[in-house]
Amino acid sequence: MSLFGLSLGRLIEALCCLPGVGPKSAQRMAFYLLESNREGGQRLAQALLEALDKMTHCQTCRILSETDLCSLCADSRRDHGQLCVVEMPSDVQAIEQATNYAGRYFVLMGHLSPLDGVGPEALGMDLLAKRLDTDQIREVILATNLTVEGEATAYYISELAQTRGITTTRIAHGVPLGGELEFIDSNTLSHAFQSRQHL
Amino acid sequence: MSLFGLSLGRLIEALCCLPGVGPKSAQRMAFYLLESNREGGQRLAQALLEALDKMTHCQTCRILSETDLCSLCADSRRDHGQLCVVEMPSDVQAIEQATNYAGRYFVLMGHLSPLDGVGPEALGMDLLAKRLDTDQIREVILATNLTVEGEATAYYISELAQTRGITTTRIAHGVPLGGELEFIDSNTLSHAFQSRQHL
């Protein structure tokens, strides 16, 4: 990389930290920014510094937010009685875009993973338990991913809720809409069979 | 995007300017930088600002460089008699990594493309002509891409060189090493057939 100077090497190395970007794409990005779009590069650097400076976590639901209380938690029209627990902020965005859910959220920022040292504290379970105690929650909707860790996390939270007598639901898993049976992976199909429902 | 605040929206928009990055990947990158790797984000912003500030073009060969004269042009051990003309700085890097070429370079920063308003001036052809006049060049090696525009650019430069009585060569095109004939695209195969050489 020293062919073009140290600062280019450092830029390529820094771009490699982005998810899905390896040395070749990082090099392509660096050349593009320096050759064809310096204005875009300036804008990216500024936007990055601004976002890193301003974005923090909502103190109620742990979502990414510029303010102590995020726009969803601050919205008094949303139902306090429903609490949807998800793993990541992007899950909130997906649910907001796809459904008409009008309750509250709690973002774990991950899932239980003892081997990686991620225990209940790191996921803010104490904050969640406090909300279950103080907010008047009727239903906890578990929308963690259907992975081993996501399932374990959902189970842990269902225990928290059920000891407090709160209804707990899990979003449905099975064959996606428009999915053709022959192309569905066998785990999903097996799950869909076991969870079949009466018509 | 206003779900999480304006600065996140701006960051996602700015990331979209990178080649090969669409709104979904940009969102994933933004969440990753803000959630899991703030240090990497800071480093990226700093590296970007530093590179944009320091990187300029070599005044002799037009390659990206931190200094007025790039490390290749400043290296007195390299042969002044050979000049390899390429389209992009990444081409120089590829040639340096793959071959033991020890001559000089000239980087066009593109190819002739009259429809996009890219004429000889934009590619520094006047600078190239001056080098052909003043440097004692024995051979011009044309290593532009084998596209319509790359070929037209190579032809233009070969005219420049030949009117000055300088030998002009073009890098070989054909079936790549290890390439199996049945999987080679028909244009390449046709070209390889036409350019067959005596054993």
UniProtKB/TrEMBL annotation, chains A, B:
Domain Toprim per the UniProt entry, residue ranges: 81-176
Key words, A-Z: DNA damage, DNA recombination, DNA repair, Metal-binding, Zinc, Zinc-finger
Gene Ontology biological process terms in this record: DNA recombination; DNA repair
Molecular function per GO: DNA binding; zinc ion binding
Coiled coil: none
Zinc finger (C4-type): 58-73
Pfam families tied to this protein: RecR_C (PF21175), RecR_HhH (PF21176), RecR_ZnF (PF02132), Toprim_4 (PF13662)
Gene3D superfamilies documented for this protein: 3.40.1360.10, 6.10.250.240, RecR Domain 1 (1.10.8.420)
Keyword Zinc attributed: yes
Matches recorded under NCBIfam families: recR
Job of this protein: May play a role in DNA repair. It seems to be involved in an RecBC-independent recombinational process of DNA repair. It may act with RecF and RecO.
PANTHER family assigned: RECOMBINATION PROTEIN RECR
Family of the protein in this entry: Belongs to the RecR family.
Name of this chain's protein: Recombination protein RecR
Organism: Nitrosococcus watsoni (strain C-113)
Gene: recR
